[in-house]
Write a structure and sequence with these properties.
The complex is a heterodimer of chains A (263) and B (287). In chain A, 68% of the residues lie in helices and 3% in strands. With 263 residues, chain A is mostly helical. Chain B has two domains: 245 residues, Rossmann fold (3-Layer(aba) Sandwich), CATH 3.40.50.300; 40 residues, no CATH class. Classes of the chains: A mainly alpha (263), B alpha/beta (287). The structure holds adenosine-5'-triphosphate and magnesium ion.
Chain lengths: 263, 287
């Protein structure tokens, strides 16, 4: 059911990819994204796809799990592909009624689909192999220089880790409340728009109440442990780069540079 | 005795195709007989909640069948809602599902979904509140202003009001104080006796199950470990202990006394029975 949403889900493991410093992975993903947007030749796309395949292999994430992450954006992918396919001017390959497919259209559509697929699966690989806590730790550390510009980096990171921490809890809770109301004959699946919206009330009211209760409890618990923002706060797990981090980072920087220059 | 629910070789696997794949119930078979009060007991994580969500079709078996009155409940998936009205399920911590403005309207939610209204609806709500031990005066209050125990009763009444043939309760007394527990369970027993309906009571307290159930099914690691009357089950006390479960205190005392050479029945399971057995022993000059 709702549990099938893998958006931002972490698959625990003990592979090289899991052990990397989160900052390395974040920077590598930035390089990866830059490279993907610079791809113009088949060779470039092939290299990126190969990189992704090897990375997935190292992380021991199955192709199925990787592509499942695409499900929520399937519609957008199809939509872009169709638009590009029919509305790019150029040399006509095939016409039917008002539809006209051009060579350029075909290429752009294929390139678009590949690009989005690589982009999304690549970033999913990051969240599959990095726990949300480490991810925000890495982000906070990378953005630390912005503190000089009075950007509340620590607070933003804390908000993000709390949000990430509670997404699975809220999904679980939604599932549970939904089941409980279904057991009383609630029907979430049939009827028109208004009826469906109304049917959500028995789900949303308890969900909000419990979310507020949780927020309240969490705030109290944090205050009880003397949390008062990031000032002077030390870390239990201090991040540091190992040789493997330098190696991976070097690889991605070279990759991005090569693709930008040649691709 | 006539079987109202029959579970055949039920397997349920969570998270198929993810690294979290895990069978919570594995090849379990179980019968529920019409009119009985069945106690379902098992260690934490033994699959009790998973099992009972199959009884009213909230979960679909990965393998195996669930029969209600001899009919596979998934024979016509469109009619699964009717199954939910016939097998009422009260979840663990049901107070978190309340949403209406008044307790009355919350209890009426189930019967309203069944298409009831007017006098019949009113009668059902009031009857259910009485069975759940909820004071009539609380019916017009917002459920959110009630105490935890009162909320629990509203939630239980909400399922009883559908007048299901089988009422399944998942740890109804969890988190209540001893008096609250006893009151609630007494109300459930009274409901069972007065209505003669089938009740399935899930718990991990041996004392509770021993006291209230006609028949007990013990689950361990997703399978049925044993089933039978409380006497039959508690006479296999050492097996229960090995499955990580407790035996009732009275049974433990009796087992210990027997070990020390007293001719006492080790399968007594209530304090009253134990006292009677000890008195009989004393009269007979056994100690
Ligand atoms: N929605 C779910 N997704 C994944 N795994 C689950 C889910 N619900 C339960 N499980 C797993 O299935 C197993 C059985 O859980 P279940 O809730 O049925 O146990 P239980 O006997 O009701 O335990 P308790 O006495 O603690 O309520 C547990 O190991 C649990 O981790
Ligand atoms: Mg449970």
């Amino acid at each position: 059911m709702l549990k099938d949403i893998t958006l931002g889900q972490y698959f625990p493991g003990d592979t090289l990819a899991h052990r990397l410093d989160p900052r390395t992975k974040l920077l590598a993903v930035v390089c990866y994204i830059v490279a993907i947007f610079s791809c113009h030749t088949l060779w470039a796309y092939g290299t990126m796809a190969l990189t992704l395949a090897v990375a997935a292999r190292i992380s021991k994430v199955s192709a199925r799990a990787l592509f499942r992450g695409l499900r929520p954006v399937l519609f957008i992918i199809t939509f872009t592909a169709v638009l590009n396919l029919f509305y790019t001017p150029g040399e006509t390959l095939w016409t039917w009624w008002v539809l006209r497919v051009t060579r350029e259209g075909l290429y752009t559509a294929l390139a678009m689909v590949t690009r989005i697929t690589l982009l999304i699966t690549g970033t999913f690989l990051l969240t599959y192999t990095t726990s949300p806590i480490r991810l925000t730790d890495g982000l906070e550390s990378l953005l630390a220089p912005l503190k000089k510009l009075r950007v509340p980096v620590h607070e933003l990171a804390m908000m993000m880790s709390i949000a990430l921490r509670f997404i699975p809890t809220l999904i679980e809770e939604t599932d549970k409340i939904m089941s409980a109301q279904k057991a009383r004959g609630a029907d979430f699946e049939s009827g028109g728009l208004i009826r469906r919206a109304k049917a959500l009330i028995p789900l949303l009211v308890p969900l909000f109440i419990s979310a507020f209760r949780r927020a309240d409890e969490l705030a109290t618990a944090m205050e009880c442990r003397c949390y008062h923002g990031g000032e002077g706060r030390t870390k239990l797990h201090v991040l540091h780069f190992a040789a493997r981090d330098y190696a991976v980072l070097a690889f991605y920087i070279v990759l991005a540079a090569a693709i930008v220059a040649l691709g | 005795m006539e079987e109202i629910i029959k579970v055949e070789n039920l397997t349920h696997t969570y998270g198929v195709g993810t690294p979290f794949e895990r069978s919570a119930v594995e090849g379990m078979s179980l019968s529920v007989y019409r009119g009985e009060l069945l106690g379902l007991i098992g260690h934490t994580g033994s699959g009790k909640s998973t099992l009972i969500q199959h009884l009213n079709g909230l979960l679909r078996p990965t393998a195996g069948r669930v029969l209600l009155d001899g009919q596979d409940i998934w024979a016509e998936p469109k009619k699964i809602r009717d199954v939910r009205f016939r097998v009422g399920l009260v979840f663990q911590y049901p107070e978190y599902q309340l949403f209406e403005e008044t307790a009355y309207r919350d209890i009426a939610f189930g019967p309203t979904n069944m298409g009831l209204s007017g006098e019949e609806l009113d009668r059902r709500v009031r009857d259910a509140a009485r069975f759940a031990g909820l004071d009539e005066r609380l019916l017009d209050k917002s459920p959110f202003t009630l105490s935890g125990g009162q909320k629990r009763r509203v939630a239980i009444a909400g399922v009883i009001a559908m007048e299901p043939e089988v009422l399944v309760l998942d740890e109804p007394s969890a988190g209540l104080d001893p008096r609250g527990r006893e009151e609630l369970l007494e109300h459930i027993r009274a409901y069972h006796r007065e209505r003669g309906n089938t009740v399935v009571l899930v718990s991990h307290s041996m004392e509770e199950i021993a006291r209230y159930a006609d028949r007990i099914v013990v689950l361990a690691r997703g399978r049925t470990l044993m089933s039978g009357t409380p006497r039959e089950v508690f006479s296999r006390g050492s097996e229960l202990v090995r499955a990580g479960l407790d035996v009732p205190q009275a049974t433990r005392v009796a087992m210990e006394l027997q070990k020390r050479g007293l001719a006492i029945d080790p399968a007594v399971y209530t304090v009253e029975d134990l006292a009677a057995a000890l008195l009989a022993l004393r009269k007979g000059g056994g100690c």
